Here is the input.
Amino acid sequence: MSANRWLATGNFFSTYQEEQRIFFTHSDRTIFSIFLVLIFVWPILFPLSNKYMLVIDNTLIAIIAIIGLNLLTGFAGLISIGHAAFVGIGAYTIASFCTLIGEDHMLITHAWPLLILISGGVGAFFGAIVGLPAMRLKHLYLAIATLSFQMIFIWTIQFMDFFNQGQTISVGRVYWIFGKVSRDQHYLFWYYAILVFIVVLGFMVRNLLRTKYGRCLTAVRDNDRAADAMGMHPGFTKVYAFGLAGFMAGIAGALHAYLYRGVGFESFTLNESITYLAMAIVGGLGTLPGSFLGPAAIKALDLLVEYFAANVASLMPSSQDVATGLRPLVFGLVIVLFLMFEPRGIANWWRIVRSYFKLWPFRY
Amino acid sequence: MKKGKKFLVVVFLTLIACAFLLNACAKKEEEKEGVVYKLGLSLAITGPTSDAGNPYSKGVEDYFNYVNDTKMLGNDTIECIIKDDQYKTDITKRNFEDFLSNGIVLYLNYSTGSTLALKKDFDEEKIPTIPASFHAGNLVDSSYIFLPIASYSEQTVGLAEYVVNNHQGDMAKVAMFIHPSAFGRGPVEDLQKAVEAGLKMDIIEVVEHGKDLDNTAMLQRLLSKNVQYVICHTVQSPVATLLTDAERLGIAAKSFGESGKLTFLGVHYTGGNDLIALAGAASESFLWTTSYVLTSEPGKWTDKQLDLAKKYNRDDKTANSHNYTNGIMVAQVAAEVILRAKDKGLEITRDNLYKELLAMNGGNAFEPGSTVGPVTYSETDRAGVDQLQLYVVKDGVFTAVGSTFQSEYIKKIK
Here is the structure.
């Protein structure tokens, strides 16, 4: 271990435990703590309009979903193109409670943290069920199995009266220690609530990856036969990877239901599943920072392209159709170019920046 | 002077020039002196249903430009922020929040899904909202949504009444061909209620269409069940496929109720010139109802609409689209309530516009000209135009059939 715990240049690990630490230096821990304080404090110092708070809350929810997808696709190597359906399971768990006991029932409005966790549990259950074919299927075949689940989910929601045939099911306003959360406070309140979930789940996943269960995921991804020979259970690992992804997605879905105060099928379609996959890939598969950077980048890009289209339309009103049509085109093009020139995702940039500071003042 | 320095000086001077220019523009704006009333419209300019959304947005945009250009509100102007939501509710919600932070006094929404999803927000914000969706469910548990014309349910039941009144022989056998969504399913229950209330017809089957490119099997099945009438409630393209297939199979009725064949009827979003363009000759004899005046029926209003489209450089397709009329009509209602509130010396606020909308009845009913009847709203009636007009495709254009009508059974089942 380096003598200086504040500015350790390079790697100085003498035990496995040292390598498994969450923070390698005091600087890392301090910077992270300051960052954590900042993300909790900035909305009070620089209040944003509801539109931007909604975008930020939505991005944070996507981060939770992508942490799950990254565990599944990035760490365990199991492709899922039905992740939006798992998010939908979480959202529809809340919607089901609303249908059964009423949207303004105390359980919905007061015990919302419990319901969010229950939604995670339901997501995990369905994840594990969908994960069962993963014991027999691999690669594209598994992708098709998850696609089927996505189709079944949408079909079920759209045709069952219980789910209002996909029409919006309203969710009541929640309460917390200071009373009912008003419309003015709504987005700020959910910013903090989602942030707490992200911090807790982020640490959980970081810790998981340090344990044998986390290493199992990577081992099965790299070579499941070798993992089997080393005493791991590839089948169980795959099912539990799906369960974990389902849990995260379920939490994200429940938060989505509360944030939007309603659940409709449109937010959980195949289109959304592909967007989630794009977020995970752009962020960087198999990296925890990638789960944060991917959703942030994609949502920011979406907003930027929207501004671009709006500005083109305002400068040339007659070409408004072209400008709005350009939006998906520019969006797609940026992602394709990004994947061509940085296939390891934004997390790689993060790695390069960290390495630079880690080695500083040396160049290599 | 070195090249770099020269470049910096040029950039610096350009920035100063731009700042002066912007300042001058801002002053010019201030000189206008009028009040700007902000409105918001979120709709599908791209993505699903943009074939309807696109001309609709142009109708709204053109009419507000017309209001401002002709100084209908004096020096005051209307600024309607139009944003594309790609038919996605999440984006609609984002746009709505953006509009609110911009201080809008009236909101124009579009799809059924997003109207239902944002219903509570409209109530909490107490903002009068006029959607392009005529779904009757929009009005349930909501006080601030105002439908421009009769609901889909009213149109469907109205068509069914027309079938019953003009059908010859035993009980009329009807099938429904609907969009697989809240928008499509809305009127099914109401039509069933009308049948239970005494409307003498049999609903043989309700078909939710998918993305089928061929309806042969479905059409043959309907025929085998002795279905004679198909009431469609969806968008134009599936109806065009349906009509084309029926024509190819030789089972499309050439006149209303032709025995052994199928007579097709449809509500607002199934018809219009786009249907004729898509289905061609197969659209002949298709019966369609809406509350809008069509440019294929020349009159005082249609000249005005075509002039408006010409003034703002719209193509013929847009100028003749009933969705363009639809957008104009919604803008007319919005401009009218602002004008009425202004004439009374009231401040233009959400609350005052809401009250003006509710007072739009009796002697205060609004005659926009773009519709076949007056726009009326009250505490108990938040569907604008109650009159419906039946049109039929004759020689490639929609022609009015008889005079306007209102559904009788819809009142019984309410």
Observations:
- Residues 171 and 201 of chain B are 5 Å apart (CA to CA).
- The two ends of chain B are 84 Å apart (CA to CA).
- Chain B touches chain A through 29 residues (CB under 8 Å).
- Chain B has two domains: 36-150+297-381, 152-290+390-413.
